[in-house]
Amino acid sequence: MTGPSAFERAAAEYDAWFDAHPVLFESEVQALLLAFPEAYGPTGRWAEIGVGTGRFASRLGIPVGVEPAEAMAAFARSRGIRVFPGTAECLPLGNESADAVFFITTLCFVADIGRALAEARRILVPGGLLVVGFLPRERPLGRRVTEDPPDAFLREARLLSTPELLGHLRHAGFEVLRTVQTLRNFPMPETVEAPIDGFGRGSFVVIRCARPRLIGNLSMQS
Ligand SMILES: C[S@@+](CC[C@H](N)C(=O)[O-])C[C@H]1O[C@@H](n2cnc3c(N)ncnc32)[C@H](O)[C@@H]1O
Asked: Model confidence over 39-94: pLDDT tens digits?
């Protein structure tokens, strides 16, 4: 039998990482903002799945989260996020209830990615956006995490390569609109890095995609 996840056992330690690594955190935030500039405007019907301690959600103005580890959720609630207990594979949110859904370094912890993406699609309105931030397995940081995980949290991760994730997203019916990358200066940038478009150079990648609108037999971009 496996015990509680590292996220349940050591939420405070997880949360403290952000204070110890402000340049990394802010570089990732900048990449998310380039992929999702809507976050500069008023908050919408947005939900982060695997919201953790709510660091990204509170920074990006995401008002709702879903999180299986109660210890993590308690931190997110203290940051003003409305958190529902649950998992990505069985979301406690209604059909077409969200305009944007986020997975930020969470899909690598999800047991059934196909099911998680089908659930994200279910809760998105047609034309709604899915934003995925992740550590691609093929880049130096991802390789290090895969070969020699630096902490108990990352020992539970099964990182995906960018082509694998793009394949999952397209298979789930999402239309890939844009990719953004940062953390090109592995091991660590000394100052906040300006993100650039594309993937293949950065150790943190963001994919923006959409649940297509269906018009007759034609699928239309939002
Ligand atoms: C690396 S943390 C990321 C948290 C937050 N998104 C962030 O970037 O700080 C991964 C989170 O995914 C959650 N998680 C693990 N399995 C999950 C699942 N099946 N569905 C949703 N979340 C899950 C963990 O409890 C943890 O809070």
From this structure: 999 999 999 999 999 999 999 999 999 999 999 999 999 999 999 999 999 999 99
Q: Is the CB of 50 under 6 A from ligand 1?
A: yes
Pocket probe mutation, ligand 1, options 60, 87, 109, max atoms within 8 Å of Cβ: 109
Domain covering 6-220, topology: Rossmann fold (3.40.50)
184 C-beta closer than 6 A to ligand 1: no
pLDDT digits (tens, 9 = 90+) for 146-190: 999 989 999 999 999 999 999 999 999 999 999 999 999 877 678
Q: Which atom of ligand 1 lies at the shortest distance from residue 50's CA?
A: 22
For ligand 1, atom 26, name the residue with the nearest CA.
52
**Which residue's entry shows tokens 């859904």?**
101
User: CB within 8 A of 49, min separation 6: which ones?
Assistant: 65, 66, 88, 91, 101, 102, 103, 106, 116, 120
65 in contact with ligand 1, CB cutoff 6 A: no
Q: Domain segments of the chain: what residues?
A: 6-220
CA of 160 to the centre of ligand 1 (A): 15
CA 26, 5, 149, 47 dihedral sign is: negative
**Under 8 Å between Cβ of 132 and 107:** yes
